[in-house]
Amino acid sequence: MAKFARIFIVPKHRLWLNILISLLTFGAMVVSAAWYSIHSSVETMEMEMVEAEEHFAELRQRLTDTFAIVERDVTATPCSAPFMAQLRRVAFLPDGLSEFLYAPRGKVECSTASHRFEQAIDFGKPDIVRTYGRLWVNRDLGVLGLDGERGTIVLRGNIAVVVPISAARFSKPDWLDVEGVIRADTGQWWHRGGDEGIYEQVKAGGEHWLLSGMLSNFSCGPLGLHCVAVRINLPALISSQRPLIDAVVVMMAVLSLFLTREFDKMMQRYWSFESRLRRSLDANSVMCVYQPLMSLEHNEIVGCEVLARWRDIDGSTVYPDRFLPLIEQEAATLKFTELVARRACDELSRMLPAGRRLQVNFNIFPCDLDHKKLLAVYAGFLAQPERFDVVLEIIESEEIPPNAQHEIEMLRAAGVKTFIDDFGSGYSTMQSLAALSVDGVKLDRSFAMAADDTMMGRMLHHAVEMIHATGRVMVIEGVETQERLRLLRKMKTQIDLVQGYYISHPLPIACFIDYLEARAVEPVQPRRRKKPAVVAA
Ligand SMILES: Nc1nc2c(ncn2[C@@H]2O[C@@H]3COP(=O)(O)O[C@H]4[C@@H](O)[C@H](n5cnc6c(=O)[nH]c(N)nc65)O[C@@H]4COP(=O)(O)O[C@H]3[C@H]2O)c(=O)[nH]1
């Protein structure tokens, strides 16, 4: 899941994902469009094949009708003048068949074009013998006086009809190859019309496996005499549709980019940091680290500040500066505080060695000082008063609500202390310090972190003096160096607790417990100090 989520979260992966999606959608559209156009071309091909078959069936019918008319109307003595006149009358019928022969036993004695031949013309053995008639296929008709013409001679009884090559011509789209053939029972075949060579190629197969015989077909009429082979000529089909194909490809490219953008927007909405946090802010994703608090006087670790981290769904750790504003925006502050408290209570209760007492500082949002629910949030710690002292640091994210004082007193009555956090920055001003009877003040880390020769560095002494004047417990955080710790020690003003990277970075629970044991700290004795004064605003 974490790996899967990273695809949508990491910008570099997202770019590749978008490229992949647009290629896939474009590819899918191209394949579907190609499939659709091949299918409709195949339908056209099948229709053309049926039409070609019908053409041969029609030709056969014309022949059958012609033979019937000849039998009925041509009654004169064969090859006599009246016979020829009767034959010519039939030849003038508008069915395209105009050349008739009188050919008993296959020997032509006279014809409508050449009248009587001095010597009967013998075409020899017929190519095809059927009950339908005897056929001499694609013969040179020059001997019959039809110079330069070829045609098929069909003999039934003593009368033969010449079917010219032109009688088997098909009309068809340019991108379709059609060939009509006539076949003997022996399997021998002759070209009858259309594009020569198609029949052989179609019979040989050899189409691409992907199209598996889709682009060609072959069919024979009911007598098996005439067969039609059809084949889609792909290059011709593509070039005949070129402008349309170009337009469709451009349209598909635009559409795939549009779809990819919409998909990306949807994914961004779904996988945005805000949505991820909203979806998975729960007991499993909220983690705690513990930063030791050291008593400056005794050089002992007396407590820790619980700092929250959020584990993103891709497994990465997110720091508070990123998620806290969102939690406030989503009005999920109390839920979040509760998750942190529950996690810390679970970890510390399990891991802290028996007999060890610890001050546990939590950060709380000012707005939650209005809910009267904080005692319930820390109930787990309050149930173990011999092990834990709870301190709530009011963070400086927003203004402190007017009735916070009441809540602070309620907390104090239950043994929970409150500190003002990050004093000297944001909303935590002298005014809020004066207005609230908090137990302690934590000076903003920017003072201790600042170099001596900077304004903040010089102000450190004054800030310490000022907090001291209020009589509150004083915590200095942001102690990053030994020199700074030494300087704080040398100050005449009493500083109670120090915190910072020089002492320790925030640690996961196991490391924190190891750290405590390594420092072999004795249980801390509570120190006497004067009660914090409640200063009226
Ligand atoms: N440069 C430097 N930094 C130091 C040093 N010592 C400590 N820090 C950092 O200073 C921050 C101290 O916490 P904070 O002032 O309460 O400031 C906290 C606090 O206002 C807020 N926060 C953290 N956890 C929680 C929480 O559970 N609830 C609420 N409401 N706020 C939290 O987020 C802020 C930032 O927390 P983190 O990022 O953990 O950052 C921590 C800590 O890692 C040092 O010597 N040098």
From TrEMBL:
<dbReference type="GO" id="GO:0005886">
    <property type="term" value="C:plasma membrane"/>
</dbReference>
<dbReference type="InterPro" id="IPR024744">
    <property type="entry name" value="CSS-motif_dom"/>
</dbReference>
<keyword id="KW-0812">Transmembrane</keyword>
<keyword id="KW-1003">Cell membrane</keyword>
<keyword id="KW-1133">Transmembrane helix</keyword>
<dbReference type="Pfam" id="PF12792">
    <property type="entry name" value="CSS-motif"/>
</dbReference>
<dbReference type="Pfam" id="PF00563">
    <property type="entry name" value="EAL"/>
</dbReference>
<dbReference type="GO" id="GO:0071111">
    <property type="term" value="F:cyclic-guanylate-specific phosphodiesterase activity"/>
</dbReference>
<dbReference type="InterPro" id="IPR001633">
    <property type="entry name" value="EAL_dom"/>
</dbReference>
<keyword id="KW-0472">Membrane</keyword>
<keyword id="KW-0973">c-di-GMP</keyword>
<protein>
    <recommendedName>
        <fullName>cyclic-guanylate-specific phosphodiesterase</fullName>
        <ecNumber>3.1.4.52</ecNumber>
    </recommendedName>
</protein>
<keyword id="KW-0378">Hydrolase</keyword>
<dbReference type="InterPro" id="IPR035919">
    <property type="entry name" value="EAL_sf"/>
</dbReference>
<feature type="transmembrane region" description="Helical">
    <location>
        <begin position="15"/>
        <end position="38"/>
    </location>
</feature>
<feature type="domain" description="EAL">
    <location>
        <begin position="270"/>
        <end position="520"/>
    </location>
</feature>
<dbReference type="InterPro" id="IPR050706">
    <property type="entry name" value="Cyclic-di-GMP_PDE-like"/>
</dbReference>
